[in-house]
Amino acid sequence: MRMFKTAFLAASCASALWGAPAALAAPRAEIILYQDDNFGGDSRIVRDAVPDLGWIHFDDRVSSVEVRRGVWELCQDSHFRGRCITLDHDISKLSRLHFDDTISSVRRVR
Predict the structure, then answer these.
(1) What are 50's strand-pairing partners?
(2) pTM of the prediction?
């Protein structure tokens, strides 16, 4: 029985070590786009570049954003054209930046 416990413990430790690189990997960048001010209404989670928010039915509908991880560029025209802003923090009212309901593309800035 003691041999079984030792073998089980060794297998458990090896399993934990093999999973360590995945567990230590940095979390992915993420931003949440909200339809209404103060993080309300319909929302979309974005983890990768979206050159045209129309593809996810959210073009010109963003009023607030929650930056979970990373730095993000939000542009008024599709394919990252037009006036753009860079954000690394939440914005409860994009109207303060004259960006309410005008965003058409979003991407992470490295």
Answers:
(1) 106
(2) 0.76
For residue 107, give the DSSP letter: E
Q: The dihedral of CA 66, 69, 73, 76: what is its sign?
A: negative
**Secondary-structure percent of the chain, ordered helix, strand, coil, rounded to 5:** 35, 35, 30
Query: How many Å apart are CA 80 and CA 73, to the nearest integer?
Result: 8
Average pLDDT over the chain, rounded to an integer: 85
Domains in the chain (CATH in brackets) are 30-109 (2.60.20.10)
DSSP-assigned states of every residue in 16-46: HHHHHHHHHSPPPPEEEEEEEGGGEEEEEEE
d(CA 97, CA 95): 5
- Tokens representing residue 64 in the block: 């607030």
